[in-house]
Amino acid sequence: MIDLHVHTNCSDGTLTPTELVKRAAVKGVTTLAITDHDTIAGNEEALKEGVRLGVEVIPGVEVSIKIGEVGVHLLGYGLDFTTPRGLAAFNRLAVAREERLVRMVSRLNELGAPITSNEVKQLAGGEVIGRLHIAKVMMRRGFVPNLQSAFTQYLGKRGLAYVDRERLTPIGAIEVIKEMGGVAVMAHPGVLERELGEFPEDVVRELKDMGIGGIEAYYSRHSPEQTEAFSELAAKLGLFTTGGSDFHAPNPDGIELGRGYGDMRVPEECLVELKKAISNTRN
């Protein structure tokens, strides 16, 4: 099985890169791409464990961008995570996450929440800090009754303490991915379709003009009709297709590596075309 979209605790997953690759081996996943949000930190560890267990690991990333006011995610595959510009770009995003934490905690303090940035960092325990960690500290301090309340009232996009994340520009993100020897792919277009309320062909065309090479047509939350529609769009625009589960954490009733909700399968042809595109970028 192939899974080209998974997360570790270097972003918002729960498993370490080593644990994730071990789970992939147990579940029969033979090729795995590490695509943590706005960080390349987990790739080296995952590659080492992949060599040990015989699981092919493709170094990657999932980058948040905006096209106008529309939030879009790009997947980068085949990255050389030692390139200076790539390291600089993702180090800057790490600094921005830290600054975002401080600003959100400051807003919460103004609203009466008795929490500190240090508490959030301690709870994260070395993981990349996200809003979930802030929400857990808010619960621990009794400021909110549950995580849903924390996000609905304070940390969600319309929340009182929300601070938007810093993003690379669309062209900047694609250029960084290419400079690292990789290829850029539009992630889960069906998610964008639900948000827009319409088929996102115009966004895909705009991203193609900027330099993406493919679309993630196979995805846990895509219906069979969406998978077919995005595969047809890719063919029409001369893009290849990829696929992945978007696995974050072990959950008996949730998304599983390589299978999504049970019936997702990424065709071997997707991996062949992806490797061809990576090779072309490097040559």
Describe the fold and architecture.
The chain starts with a strand and ends with a helix. A hairpin with a 2-residue loop joins strand 3 and strand 4. The protein has 283 residues and is an alpha/beta fold. 47% of the residues lie in helices and 16% in strands. Helix 4 crosses helix 5.
Topology of this structure?
Elements: E1 2-6, H1 17-27, E2 31-34, H2 43-53, E3 56-67, E4 70-77, H3 84-110, H4 117-124, H5 131-140, H6 147-155, H7 170-179, E5 183-186, H8 189-196, H9 201-210, E6 214-219, H10 224-237, E7 240-244, H11 268-282
Parallel strand pairs: 1-2, 2-3, 5-6, 6-7
Antiparallel strand pairs: 3-4, 4-5
Helix pairs in contact: 1-2, 4-5, 5-6
CATH architecture of the largest domain: Alpha-Beta Barrel
Query: Total domains, how many?
Result: 2
Mean pLDDT: 93
Q: Which spans of ≥5 residues are poorly predicted at pLDDT below 50?
A: none
Count of beta strands: 7
Q: Which class of the largest domain in CATH terms? A: Alpha Beta
What share of residues is helical? 40-55%
CATH fourth-tier homologous superfamily of the largest domain: Metal-dependent hydrolases
Strand order across the largest sheet:
1-2-3-4-5-6-7
Gap between N and C termini: 28 Å
**Form type:** globular
What's the tally of helices? 11
- Largest beta-sheet characterization: 7 strands, mixed
Classification by helices and strands = alpha/beta
Q: Rg, please?
A: 19 Å
Helix and strand element order: EHEHEEHHHHHEHHEHEH
